[in-house]
Structures are given as C-alpha cells and as structure tokens.
Specification:
Layout: E1 12-14, H1 22-35, E2 45-53, E3 58-62, H2 75-86, E4 92-101, E5 104-105, H3 114-127, E6 132-136, E7 141-144
Parallel strand pairs: 4-6
Antiparallel strand pairs: 1-7, 2-3, 2-4, 4-5, 6-7
Amino acid sequence: MQKTNIISFSFTEYANLEELESPDRDLVLSARAAALKAYAPYSKFRVGAAVRLESGRIVSGANVENAAFPSGICAERSALAYSVSNFPEDHPVAIAIAAFSGETLTKDQVSPCGSCRQVIAEEEMRIGKEIRLILSGSAKTLVIGSISSLLPLQFE
C-alpha cells in the first residue's frame, strides 16, 4: 500500500541582526569576518562559518577553492575540522554561516551544501547533541535547532 508522508520543520526568523541574543550575534559576525578571508578566485562567492564550542570559544573557517574542482573545501567543513582537530572534547553547540558575493553580503541566507549537512550530522552523532544552525544574510537570519531539519533522512 502506498503512503505519502510529509517532512516539515520549523525555524526562527529574525529581520535584523540586532534581534539576536549577543552570543548568536557575535557568532554571525565571526562567520562574516571569516567569509572575508575565503579563497574564492573562481566563483567570487566567499563563505564563512563560525562554530561556538561548549566553552564559549569561537573557531571559524572559510571556503577554499581549487582549480582542480571539487578539491576545495567548504567553510562549514573547514571550521568543524579545525574544531574537532584542536578541541575534540570541547563540543560544538552552534554554527553560523554567512556569505559574500564579491564584496557584498548576500541578501538571502545561505544553507550548507549536502556534504556539509552530512558532516554536521556526523558531528551531532559523535557528540550526542544537536548543533544549532544560524544562517545569516543581510535581509534576515534564520535559526534552526538541528541539522536533522535540513537533512531529515541523513545517512547513519
């Protein structure tokens, strides 16, 4: 018998950055600063990610492109790899993502690619806790409780 199911999720939307609580606002600003350090000579699309750890420490990463596409790395995986490599017992609690197209912050928020979604899901499985996602553009910022909202049928 055929059965149709619907997958939906909820998120909180903020019209401007000042509406966020200070720790989340700081995380978004760190992601934006990280994006400005990206190496994106081909796409000119610079992405930054900032991860807040349980201790409050913030680590960041940026996308790094490579002429031998797809040998580059996304900002989210860069930041999480740094986090796990340097602070394996200080677990992520939130990750903020922001992007610039050229020199301009994107109007709309950007969302992690499929590979990054799976890496975030793996990190949630490793630590046994959800990681909040904060996706920020100039027009609005979305806060999502867990990567499972964006990747409901994740590989386990």
